[in-house]
Amino acid sequence: MLHVEVYGDGVKAIERGELIIYKRWVEKKPIKLGQMVELVSEDYVLGCGIWDRIGVRILSFEPCPSSIDDLIEENLMRAKKLRERVGYWNAYRLVHGDGDLFPGLVVDIYKDIAVLQSSSAAIDVLVDKIAAKVKKVTGVDTVVEKSVQRVRSKAGLRPRERTLIGSKKETVVEVDVEGIKYKVDVRGRKTGLYLDQRENRVLAQRISKNSSFLDLFSYTGGFGLNALHGGAKKVVFVDTDEQALKLLRENLKLNNIPENKVEIVKEDAWKYLRKTMKRRRSFDVVSVDPPALMDDLRNGYELYRSAYAGARAVGRNFLILSSCSRSMSRSLFLKAIYESLDEPYRVMEVRGSAPDHPTRVGIEDYLKTAFIGI
Amino acid sequence: MLHVEVYGDGVKAIERGELIIYKRWVEKKPIKLGQMVELVSEDYVLGCGIWDRIGVRILSFEPCPSSIDDLIEENLMRAKKLRERVGYWNAYRLVHGDGDLFPGLVVDIYKDIAVLQSSSAAIDVLVDKIAAKVKKVTGVDTVVEKSVQRVRSKAGLRPRERTLIGSKKETVVEVDVEGIKYKVDVRGRKTGLYLDQRENRVLAQRISKNSSFLDLFSYTGGFGLNALHGGAKKVVFVDTDEQALKLLRENLKLNNIPENKVEIVKEDAWKYLRKTMKRRRSFDVVSVDPPALMDDLRNGYELYRSAYAGARAVGRNFLILSSCSRSMSRSLFLKAIYESLDEPYRVMEVRGSAPDHPTRVGIEDYLKTAFIGI
């Protein structure tokens, strides 16, 4: 067991619950990337973590177990148990980085395939060990890595995309989320189902009975499919991504949705909104769930405002307005809504991401979804 | 129709979406308390409201309808429709003050009884008209007033408690909320079910399967009953209020809960926590839902911390931590949690009040509930 002494500010950082303990706070020793280290202060154990380029990433505030494999397995087991408690199965986020005391790692489960994302050099080194434990803990037969996030290049890490465990060529799986079937292509240009919106989509089911529903930035159809499941009479899906719309069409078939209930529009959402206003067409419920505009685009805040205002202009009864920009705080999100909405409106509820996307001290929830009654 | 000219800051206030337009902002005219007035600026209609001691309370941003009865009915109809959209029936908050563009008024529906609360002199004057419209819009047969909140004395209004419509002496009703039956005594020392926790209790159902569950500040049993409904093996209810515990016992019978699944403790929650720690007893899930400590007690913040820390000490898997103090912001609530919880913990979700408690610009949600995985 490698013990590393932590000094002054580092001790305070751990006591505050921070998960990154920088090199300048710890005793100098030769340590390999990804090696398990036990952090101590005057023989008192502060926690257990792995060595990374910047210092130690905390995975536990307990003494280290006997091996790094045990450390990984214990953390995955705890994460799995919490998902089980919430009743999640089949498709869920197993590990949500810092929120699950596993900084640098994200793991999504889609039926028998696990998709793993690393944003740390230490996790990169450990990825095979992690994959083996993910298989053991969840029972998946395939583990693929899809470490292609932009944050990797900032950290000097190359994109990596490969199969870690399993020989299946087919990476399209069919999953069931809250009674709705989806096809997921884990090798697609984008992957996954944006599981963070799971509970918000369930609320969308409830408010969509007999409604006409507009699903802007529909992607593969999460909100609109839930609306149909909840009894919507008609859903218009709008997205520009042909790949996503292709999967959407398959999802509609999978869920036996009659064609006359659906309209699919391959178009820019703002353009669609302008046209719809001009034609004076309106919808009972409108969902706006754009990509992270404020993280990606200079004028992101204004774009949100214009999308929300557009939704208000074409929405009759209910709006579901989302933002997944990390740089847009919850209060800024509400400001954008207040500035964009004509009277009268009522903010019925504001929610964040689903419980399989936990947060902790210092980590704000990136997803905000407001349910607005008109 | 009485038109009242609004000046400078008053116009800006309305444009910001504020619902109280002070006397100093409007033209001086003799106006009766509770009279309907249309607010104009240079012949442009800004909205419609009622005259109160402090000025005009906005009920609509449209021109006034032909009578105050129509104004009241239109607002109640809109409020009712939004609750219907969410699928609420049988027991729900019909009007949530400012959040429903009805400042000074709260209306709860419990099956065939409506309970109405006024915190404004203007609403006091209109209460009979409102009661009649509540009956018409919701179909209740009884409307009682229970205007006994402390804010009334601040506004120089006396407590009022009486039957406005209906001759029933019996004011105990049985309602169904999300599949659980409750007895509600609208004339009891406290009333109601704290409907604001409705959705949070549904999530409690989901995480309670096979668990031992501690319901601190149980009141008439909302969280614990949901836990039992979700398959909890055993629930311990703790409260000091004998009246509440009496209704709790009736609720347990109503829902056919076997006695061996339940333990009822009439005791102070902190005392119970201390004893439980001493005995090293623990629970799979712990819910802490105290009264508004920080609004009512000087040391409220510290009391929350001590309750949350206690819950952590006796909780094994999951904590459900609530605060309904208006003076405790969401960020202060999270701070209290971070300061109270030993590692490891994961904030799985933070929610507010149910959708029948809407907010708007300038009004923060008073209820905060955090779901913590351990």
Automatic annotation (TrEMBL), chains A, B:
GO terms for biological process: methylation. It is found in: Cytoplasm. Its main location: cytoplasm. It comes from the Archaea. CDD domains: AdoMet_MTases (cd02440), RlmI_M_like (cd11572). Residues 9-61 form the RlmI-like PUA domain. GO terms for molecular function: methyltransferase activity; RNA binding. GO terms for cellular component: cytoplasm. InterPro entries: RlmI-like_PUA, SAM-dependent_MTases_sf. Gene3D superfamilies: RNA methyltransferase domain (HRMD) like, Vaccinia Virus protein VP39. Keywords: Cytoplasm, Methyltransferase, Transferase. PANTHER family: RIBOSOMAL RNA LARGE SUBUNIT METHYLTRANSFERASE, S-ADENOSYLMETHIONINE-DEPENDENT METHYLTRANSFERASE DOMAIN-CONTAINING PROTEIN. This is SAM-dependent methyltransferase.
